[in-house]
Amino acid sequence: MGDGGSTSASVAGFHVVLLSGALGGHICKPSISAAALEEAGACLKEVKMKTTICTFPMRALALHYLRMCVAEGCYEEISMMARSIRREVAVHMAAALSAVKRHHLALVLHWVAAIGHVCGPACDAIKFYLKDSILENIRDVPIVLPLLPSLTPAIQNAVKEALLDALFYNDSEGVLLKELVDALIDHTSKDVAERQREVDALRLKIDTLTVADQDRRGTERQPAEMDGEEEGQGEADQGIKA
């Protein structure tokens, strides 16, 4: 709103944003103009407004979960969430998520890769923010490269063009390229370490199963050996009696 004592000010519009993004999820335009106030002989400070706030606890919880997944880099969980809700809702959210500020690139591309073909306004919104997103989230590029084959061709091409544009036209000193190379090396190292942990865990599981199987066989063999010894002892006793 304008200054309280102004008679020419009007009630400003407002919009609701998602995850601190720049794209409004809902817009309400002014319903009272400055001219209407002046005609009524009222100034802005005399206007009383009644506001109704609707809360949706489960939706708020879902968005909080999404926010925590973004903060902690749990992108597989983000993909699962996108696949688990109705497609039309997921597509609408893709457009709203296209302007979030934190880890935009990884969040949006994991989301749209999970829901499949995206076109129309949602696709346009995603492409519009791609260049700035890559410039601001260059270290997330290695995370999203494996997703490219799963993306809509239009978004896939837009990602490639935005990446090339960022590296060749906005990186005259090679700062972005160096950061991208460092991110690729870091991502590869983490991937190799993760694979090694999986191999070590598998080996440990195999060793544990092997030891358990050996113990089981040894336990089964002991009663059989004892039965054999008892039979031998019984035959010896019978021989002595004879």
Automatic annotation (TrEMBL):
Keywords: Signal. It comes from the Eukaryota. Residues 213-242 are annotated as: Disordered. Residues 1-24 form the signal peptide. Residues 213-224 have a biased composition (Basic and acidic residues). This is Uncharacterized protein.
